[in-house]
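Technical annex, item 7. During the second reporting period the consortium partners agreed on a shared format for inverse folding records so that results from different sites could be compared directly. Each record opens with the tokenized structure and is followed by the designed sequence. A conforming record, contributed by the partner at site C, is shown below for reference.
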């Protein structure tokens, strides 16, 4: 969902191919895509990049977006479109996408679980699971309702307590369900730490990137089987491969340094946006992820000039926060459950008040 793009927001397929080639060379053979990523272009890009490799040499993962399902027939249509886009006959893992209380209720209503299990019987899906964004009690309900092969949750050292990822991890582990981790570096935030949080990590290991700390922390959990990192360049991939190619868990001194970094981060009040863009497109033109990114960058670096310039000069007026009409559509799709209209209003006023 964060593939490299050119200045016109077109996926740089040559760069994607280099990344896939490096991944396969180094033994990274798990590729995750989804129907809405890059406005439907991610599946095409990934499928194209994998064509040079034998189908049994990699794992391809896709997801069923229940918000696109208006009637049962839509599930078949979407699934066949995904196979065509990815140029494949089957998916190794197929997930019910972004399950929360309402989307899971819809999945039950439309028989999505039975639909995917039927695809498994047809040989078009090998393993069945779900990706999840909600509270632990909702996760427990999903786990209790059906039998699952695998589950995908948001897990990182900030969300361990903030988003109750610790409880989610335990629910899945107790149920014997292997875990795929998404957002291990929280949409890139944990790879670009503010100075106060980065300092204790650099003091302990000046030779390691901030992202490597996040990945090693996640990898230290026994029931984590796959870590998804939304890499946007060969350089990011090389650093991640270097981090986990010869994995060593955090020792006690490193864990203490990370705890100091977490304490520094908790003192910074920012928007918990990962840039997933599920909130887009806004009916009134507000560029929600951009505004949150500008604000979060300001909170990390405290540069009012850059913040005001990025918002008032570089962001067209029709895309600014004051265009929000509080329709609430964005909140229906936000995996982080951010009160987006309230946040937009507060950010707009705070930036306008800057000297």
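Designed sequence (site C submission):
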């Amino acid at each position: 969902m964060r593939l490299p793009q050119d200045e016109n927001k077109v996926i740089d397929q040559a760069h994607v191919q280099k990344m896939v080639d490096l991944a396969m060379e180094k033994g990274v053979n798990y590729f995750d895509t989804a129907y809405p990523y890059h406005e439907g272009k991610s599946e095409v890009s990934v499928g194209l990049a994998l064509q040079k490799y034998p189908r049994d040499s990699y794992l391809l993962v896709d997801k069923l977006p229940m918000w696109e399902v208006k009637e049962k027939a839509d599930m078949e249509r979407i699934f066949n479109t995904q196979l065509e886009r990815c140029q494949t006959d089957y998916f190794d893992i197929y997930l019910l996408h972004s399950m929360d209380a309402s989307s899971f209720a819809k999945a039950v209503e439309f028989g999505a679980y039975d639909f995917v299990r039927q695809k498994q019987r047809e040989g078009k899906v090998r393993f069945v699971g779900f990706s999840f964004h909600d509270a632990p009690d909702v996760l427990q309900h999903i786990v209790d309702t059906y039998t699952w092969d695998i589950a995908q949750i948001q897990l990182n050292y900030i969300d361990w307590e903030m988003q109750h990822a610790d409880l989610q991890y335990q629910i899945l582990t107790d149920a014997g369900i292997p875990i795929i981790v998404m957002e291990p570096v929280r949409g890139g935030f944990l790879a670009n730490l503010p100075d106060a949080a980065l300092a204790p990590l650099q003091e302990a290991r000046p030779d390691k990137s901030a992202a490597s700390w996040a990945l090693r922390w996640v990898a230290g959990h026994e029931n984590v089987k796959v870590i998804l990192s939304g890499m946007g360049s060969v350089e990011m991939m090389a650093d991640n491969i270097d981090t986990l190619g010869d994995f060593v868990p955090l020792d006690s001194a490193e864990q203490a340094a990370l705890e100091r970094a977490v304490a520094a981060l908790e003192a910074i009040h920012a928007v918990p946006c990962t840039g997933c863009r599920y909130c887009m497109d806004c009916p009134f033109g507000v560029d929600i992820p951009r505004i949150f990114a500008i604000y979060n960058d300001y909170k990390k670096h405290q540069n009012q000039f850059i913040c005001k310039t990025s918002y008032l000069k570089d962001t067209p007026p029709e895309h600014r926060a004051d265009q929000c009409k509080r329709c609430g559509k964005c909140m229906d799709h936000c995996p982080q459950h951010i009160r987006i209209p309230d946040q937009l209003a507060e950010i707009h006023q705070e930036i306008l008040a800057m000297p």
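Residues 53 and 213 are 32 Å apart (CA to CA). The longest helix spans residues 252-266. All partners now use this format for quarterly exchanges.
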